[in-house]
Write a structure and sequence with these properties.
Shape: globular
Order of helices and strands: EEHEHEHEHEEH
Structural class: alpha/beta
Radius of gyration: 25 Å
Helix content: 25-40%
Strand content: 15-25%
Number of strands: 7
C-alpha cells in the first residue's frame, strides 16, 4: 500500500495581462494565482482565504518570545438598542440626563432600504464609542406618531444626537453614500465631545 500525502499540492501561476499605464499601478504588472491541483487526504478539507483571515490575527498576537499577547477585546459592533414606545424613550432621555451623557437615536423604518443598509455600519460605529455613548434605534412604524413628531423626524433614516433632554444635532442619512453618512455622524459626535 502506498503512502497518501496529507497536504494539498499547490501550483503558483503567474499571469501577465496587457498593461494599460493609465489603469494599472506600475509596480503591479502581474498577479499571483494559486490553484489546488490535487488533494488526497482521507477527509475533505477546504483551504481558502478564510484561513489567512483567521490565522493573521493569531500570528500577530504572538510576541517575539513566542507567548500570546493580550488581544483587544473591544466589540466589533454593538446592536442598536430598540425603543418601542414613548414611555421607553422618555426613560432613556431621563437616564441619560441623570448620568449627564449624550446618546444617539437612529430613526428608521422597516421598509426603508437605506436604513437597512446603514444599520450594520451604524452598529460598527456604535462599537467605537461604546460604552461612553449609547446608540438606540426607533422604528417609526411601531411607535406613536406623536413621538416621531416630537423628535421632528421627517425623513428616514435620521440619526440624532440627544443631550440634556434635547436634540442637539441630526444627520439625515438618505441623501448620500453610506460612508459619507457615517463620517457625518462621527463628526456630529466629535463636535459634541469637544463642547
Amino acid at each position: 500500500m502506498s503512502v497518501v500525502p496529507t497536504y494539498p499540492t499547490l501550483r503558483y501561476l503567474r499571469t501577465r495581462t496587457a498593461r494599460d499605464p493609465s489603469r494599472d499601478s506600475p509596480t503591479f504588472t502581474s498577479s499571483l494565482k494559486v490553484s489546488i491541483l490535487g488533494f488526497r487526504a482521507p477527509s475533505s478539507l477546504v483551504i481558502s482565504r478564510k484561513f489567512d483571515e483567521i490565522r493573521g490575527p493569531m500570528i500577530r498576537a504572538l510576541s517575539p518570545e513566542g507567548s500570546l499577547r493580550e488581544l483587544d477585546d473591544s466589540p466589533v459592533s454593538v446592536e442598536l438598542a430598540r425603543i418601542c414606545s414613548e414611555a421607553q424613550f422618555d426613560r432613556v432621555v431621563a437616564e441619560a440626563q441623570q448620568l449627564q451623557q449624550s446618546f444617539v437615536v437612529v430613526w428608521m423604518a422597516s421598509w426603508c432600504r437605506k436604513c437597512i443598509y446603514l444599520k450594520p455600519k451604524l452598529e460598527k460605529l456604535a462599537a467605537e464609542y461604546y460604552p461612553r455613548l449609547l446608540f438606540y434605534s426607533v422604528d417609526v412604524n411601531s411607535v406613536p406618531h406623536k413621538l416621531v413628531a416630537r423628535a421632528e423626524v421627517t425623513k428616514m433614516p435620521t440619526i440624532q444626537l440627544w443631550k440634556d433632554g434635547k436634540k442637539q444635532a441630526e444627520v439625515i442619512g438618505g441623501h448620500g453614500k453610506a460612508y459619507l453618512v457615517i463620517n457625518e455622524v462621527r463628526a456630529m459626535i466629535e463636535t459634541d465631545d469637544s463642547k
